Amino acid sequence: MLKTLDPLLGPDLLHALAAMGHGDELAIVDANFPGAACARRLVRVDGADATQVLAAVLSLLPLDDFVESPIASMAVVDAPDTLPPVVQAFQRLAEGFEARPLVVEPLPREHFYARAREAFAVVQTAETRLYGNVLLRKGVVRPEGPH
């Protein structure tokens, strides 16, 4: 355990977050997602749901402010305009950590899978809510004070 770090941020997840660069993507996925088959780097966070893991990640990871939508979710099959409650929770969390309005970009299922395969890492959670999957695009940490 380390002081001030969320205990969900284990060594493998911390390493992945620290190794990511600007523009790299991180997929946080539910228990049904084929993480082992899709991931270049798989990090498991068993025993926590996707919103808990998202909050822990967003406590350290800045979202990209150079793109229109630094956060994406898997669109509901046959109802792409539907915003499941878990995705609404993702949006609220991201807006709270970023202190700015954000829109979660809905991606067709196969597009989400393709982006997850290309993501820097996939974080597999114990999330059981359907469509509990989110992609985050890492931003930059700007220096403090005069530039």
List the helices and strands and how they pair.
Layout: H1 11-19, E1 25-29, H2 35-38, E2 42-45, H3 50-58, E3 71-74, H4 85-98, E4 105-107, H5 109-118, E5 121-125, E6 134-137
Parallel strand pairs: 1-5, 2-5, 3-4
Antiparallel strand pairs: 1-6, 3-6
Describe this structure as you would to a colleague.
With 147 residues, this protein is of the alpha/beta class. It has one domain (11-81, 88-137): RbsD-like fold. 31% of the residues lie in helices and 17% in strands. It has five helices and six strands, in the order H-E-H-E-H-E-H-E-H-E-E. It has helices at residues 11-19, 35-38, 50-58, 85-98, 109-118; strands at 25-29, 42-45, 71-74, 105-107, 121-125, 134-137. A six-stranded mixed β-sheet has the order 2-5-1-6-3-4. The longest helix is centred in the middle third of the chain and has 14 residues, at 85-98. It is globular and about 50 Å long. The termini are far apart. The model has no long low-confidence stretch (mean pLDDT 96).
Q: Look at the helices and sheets and give the structural class.
A: alpha/beta
In CATH, the homologous superfamily goes by the name: RbsD-like domain
Q: What is the H-and-E element order?
A: HEHEHEHEHEE
Our count of helices gives 5
The biggest beta sheet reads: 6 strands, mixed
Query: What sort of overall outline do the alpha carbons produce when their principal axes are compared?
Result: globular
Classified by CATH, the class is Alpha Beta
Major beta sheet, strand line-up: 2-5-1-6-3-4
Rounded average pLDDT:
96
Radius of gyration based on Cα positions: 14 Å
